[in-house]
Fold this protein.
Amino acid sequence: MIDGDWPARIDWSSPWLLPLAARGERWRQAALDGYGPYLETLNADVLANPRLTGRGKPLSFIAQDDLPTGASYEGHIAATGCVPTRHNLHDFFNASMWFQFPRVKAALNARQAEEIDLRGIGPTRGAARDALTLFDENAVLLACADPSLAAALRAFEWRRLFVDERAAWESRCEVRLFGHALLEKLLTPYKACTGHAWIVDVELDFFDAPEIERRAMLDHAISESLTNELISSRCFTPLPVLGVPGWWPENESPAFYDDRQVFRAGRRG
C-alpha cells in the first residue's frame, strides 16, 4: 500500500513526536522521494545502528509485497529479520519504534512468534496475542516514581492526576508514546484519543538522567517484563493522551478534565 501524501502531514512540534524528530525528518524527506529511497534510508540506519528481531535475526525493512504468500507477519519477522513495510504513516511509526525501543519490539516479536507457533493463525488471536498487539499498536509508557500517581491513574482519578499533581509531571512521572497506531491517530489529534498505559516503576533519580538513558532504562525494564511475565489486557489502564500536562494547550484549564465522555469514572473494583 502506497500513500504518497502522508509525509507532508507530520508535524514534529507535537510533544509526543519530538523524541522521533531527528531521525524521523530524514525518513520523511526520503519518503517524499519515493518508496524505494524510503526503504533504502531505513536500511542504511539499520546498518549504522544494528537491531535484532525476536529470534536474534538482524533487522531489515522490505517492501510489503516481498512478504511471501501465506506467511504470517510476525512469524516472518522472527524467522528472517525482515519487516514488511508499506509506504504509509502506520508503518513509518512502526519502524520508528524499532529504533526508539529495540528491545521492547524484539520482545513483542518473540512472544507473538511463540504464540503463532503454539496456536497457528486462526480467526482469532487469543488473549495473549491480543494483549501483545494492543501493546504494539496503542501502548503509552508511563514511568512513575510515585505509587500514589500510578494508583490515581488506575482509579481514574483524573483531577488528582492531572490537576492536583500537575507539578509531578516530568519530576515524578512521564509518558512516552509507543503504539504506532496511536501515533498515527494523533496526526489529527482529538480529545477522546486514548492510549493504553503500561506503568513502569522507577526510582526518583530516573528523572535526573539524560533522555537517552531514560529511554534505554525503559527499553530494558519493559522488555524483561514482556519476556518473563504473563500479559493480558488487565496489564493496561486507559489514559486520554491529550490530558497529559504540557501536551495540549486546552488542558491548562482544569475545566478541560470535566468532560465525562473522555475522562470517565472507573468501573474497576
Q: What stands out?
A: Residues 133-258 form one domain. The chain has two domains: 6-123, 133-258. Residues 112 and 172 are 33 Å apart (CA to CA).
